[in-house]
Amino acid sequence: MSDTQTAPTHRVVLNDEEQYSIWWADRDLPAGWSAEGTEGSREECLAHIEQIWTDMRPASLRRRMDAQAA
């Protein structure tokens, strides 16, 4: 690895309710969470989450609200 590149320190993780968070890249994921695929610095991961997570309601609530609206 060159001096200008550093190993990712964090990864973006996702749970079954489609909620995002970050986790340390060198640690096992906590139960109920899976890697989303993005790794980088803490700031890069948080910026990615801010860009993609536009509806913060849990998936079960979104489904329930969609069903009620139909």
Question: How would you describe this structure to a colleague?
Answer:
By secondary structure, the protein is an alpha+beta fold. It is about 30% helix and about 25% strand. It has two helices and three strands; from the N terminus they run βββαα. Strands 2-1-3 form a three-stranded antiparallel sheet. Strand 1 (about 10-15) and strand 2 (about 20-25) form a beta hairpin. It is elongated, with a radius of gyration of 15 Å.
Secondary structure blueprint with pairings:
Blueprint: E1 10-15, E2 20-24, E3 33-40, H1 42-52, H2 59-69
Antiparallel strand pairs: 1-2, 1-3
Principal-axis shape equals elongated
Q: Oligomeric form of this entry?
A: single chain
Distance between the termini: 54 Å
SS field, number of helical segments: 2
- Overall pLDDT score: 92
What is the ordering of alpha helices and beta strands?
A: EEEHH
Structural class: alpha+beta
Tell me the total number of β-strands. Answer: 3
For this entry, give a set of tags.
70 residues; alpha+beta; three-stranded antiparallel sheet; 2 helices; 31% helix; elongated
Summarize the structure.
The protein is α+β, with helices and mostly antiparallel strands. Helix content is 31%, strand content 27%.
